[in-house]
Amino acid sequence: METFFSFLSKRVDDCSSLLCVGLDPHPSDLPTATAEAARDFCLNLIKRTVNYAAAFKPNAAFFEFYGPEGWKALKDVVTAVQAESDRLGSHIPVILDAKRGDIASTAEAYASSTFMSLGADAVTLNPYLGRDSIEPFLKYPGKGVFILCKTSNPGAGDLQDLSFTTGDQHGIPLYEHVAHLVQEWNTADNIGLVVGATQPEALVRVRKAAPDAWFLVPGVGAQGADLETALQCGLRQDGKGMLISVSRSISRAEDVRRAAAELRDDMVEIKNRMDHG
Amino acid sequence: METFFSFLSKRVDDCSSLLCVGLDPHPSDLPTATAEAARDFCLNLIKRTVNYAAAFKPNAAFFEFYGPEGWKALKDVVTAVQAESDRLGSHIPVILDAKRGDIASTAEAYASSTFMSLGADAVTLNPYLGRDSIEPFLKYPGKGVFILCKTSNPGAGDLQDLSFTTGDQHGIPLYEHVAHLVQEWNTADNIGLVVGATQPEALVRVRKAAPDAWFLVPGVGAQGADLETALQCGLRQDGKGMLISVSRSISRAEDVRRAAAELRDDMVEIKNRMDHG
After folding, report:
1. Which of B237, B255, B216 is nearest to B123 (CA)?
2. A169 touches chain B (CB under 8 A)
3. What is the distance in angstroms between the CA of the first residue and the CA of the last residue of chain A?
4. Are strands B19-23 and B55-58 parallel, antiparallel or unpaired?
5. Which among B130, B159, B160 is the nearest to A158, CB-wise?
6. Averaged over B123-134, what is the pLDDT?
7. The predicted structure's pLDDT at residue A277
8. In the structure, what pLDDT confidence band is assigned to residue B51 with cuts at 50, 70 and 90?
9. Reported pTM
10. What pLDDT is stored for residue A1 in this prediction?
11. B39-44 contacts: CB < 8 A, separation 24 or more?
12. Which of A151, A210, B147, B155 would be a feasible disulfide site paired with A131, CB 3.0-4.6 Å?
């Protein structure tokens, strides 16, 4: 049985890209604030960037915003990515950015909603409730999760940077402890980490704590992080292990296709320089 | 302008109850696993327990489970509580148990979804992303949030019990730090805390850290926590400040109405004993 990360790795090879295109239909970016406009915005982004996208990441909030119609639109978006995968003969994972986290029986319902009803391939989860809130998501063959470790927002430090002493570890930040926990939990190659690029030293620490893990990395582009620094700090030895998640700098670009292509080309160039540096 | 907690406090007076009835339509509890059956299950629970309920707490997961139809059902459930409030002339708050947590612009979309589209009065939030993930929810007059502090599940300790040192505080668990943060953030009487009853010493610590806060308290009933111990550990001086959230021991009772009435009566009796103890 193939794992989520084996699918992802294949797709990264197929498109020579580590780019994850965020599908965040902000109401203010739409001609009208309707579920249909949100769907069309995403379908257009998918069509124009699909050749350069290792994955797509729709954000649940911008669909929930419209209630039932929004959930229909979200399903249409997932289905559109699957149709592109079939057309290209290359499985492009859909990562639902939902940051869920709840206790066991409730987590089971969220997992079913994500993987069965919506048909997403992976989902972002919040670690605050601990291991039993993650486990129900790990039972789906071929599916994956990305656990929030170090986020890219200004308030991330309120909890994530707190310094702990636990067992034989002294003075490590909470986010690094989460990375260690995830290393323990990831026995079936289906758990990655969300690590923002806005604080490169966090990428370095988390890469050290989880040498083989896949990172979903927001923060490049509108949030100001530098692509080259991020790749230098977080790439695995094999030149993989990072999905660079970009939303607004693609969706708000004058030429969406070119913005995605340039990001992909930049990644290839930086990796080549690193290989020969 | 009245605050969320002033509404809640009035309702607690009106029904002499600290009971929050959880609306968790587990698929396995329904005659058929459909959105309509989930809605009818909740409408029946509301009708039978409304006289004893200080608040209702639908869990988003068990509606998302059904996709768009589930969101329609959830809206019907919120509307039904509002109709009962109008009928009784007593505002019964609806707390959406969604445990959301995302960065600013996304949090804004979730807040709009919760308070505007659905019309809920409050929502549960996850603190892992820090203050800026909470703030967008605090801008709605009369609405409130409950931030996860110490949850009632077995894995809660994975992060929440970690002991750390920050500023002048040494060796306090993460959940207690969250309680201190929330004290700082709660400048408009609209932030409470989720504190499970399964570990009474946590209730004591959090009450000490946040003497005036409202707690949403799961864990009594199916999860095994004792009602009297919980009230003794967590009630404020004024005999309020706790909403005891009960789901399965009411919804799975042979006589739902009686189960809710007995819980309410038990609360009154325990409080009376405490007043004269």
Report:
1. B216
2. no
3. 37
4. parallel
5. B130
6. 98
7. 65
8. very high
9. 0.97
10. 73
11. B39/B73, B39/B76, B39/B77, B41/B251, B42/B73, B42/B77, B42/B80, B43/B76, B43/B77, B43/B80, B44/B256
12. B155
Q: Is the separation of the CB atoms in A8 and A93 below 8 Å?
A: yes
Task: Tell whether the model's pLDDT for residue B277 goes beyond 70.
Answer: no
Mean pLDDT across B17-21? 98
Measured distance CA(B132)–CA(B238) in Å, rounded? 32
Tell how strand B55-58 and strand B191-195 pair up.
Answer: unpaired
CB atoms B177 and A159 under 8 Å: yes
Domains of chain B: 4-270 (3.20.20.70)
Residue B90: pLDDT above 80? yes
Identify the residue whose tokens are 């990644």: A267
- A98 three-state secondary structure: strand
Instruction: Write out the DSSP string of A61-79.
Output: HHHHTTTHHHHHHHHHHHH
Residues 109-138, chain B, touching A (beta carbon < 8 A): 109-110, 112-113, 117-118, 126-133
3-state secondary structure of A122: strand
**Among residues A196, A191, A193, A192, which one has the least CA distance to residue A151?**
A196
Distance CA A196, CA A244 (A): 9
Residue type, A199: Q
Q: Does the pLDDT value for residue B44 go beyond 90? A: yes
| Residues A204, A208, A210: CA angle, nearest 5 degrees | 115
Cβ pairs bridging A and B (under 8 Å): 185
Distances (CA, A) of B37 to A21, B24, B251: 37, 12, 14
Q: How confident is the model at residue A168 (pLDDT cuts 50, 70, 90)?
A: low
Mean pLDDT for A192-217 is: 97
Give the pLDDT confidence score for residue B170 in this predicted structure: 72
Lowest-pLDDT choice from A85-89, A166-170, B83-87, B99-103: A166-170
- Which of the four pLDDT bands, split at 50, 70 and 90, describes residue B47? very high
Residue entry with tokens 């954000």? A59
**In 3D, which of A42, A122, A49 has the Cα closest to residue A76?**
A42
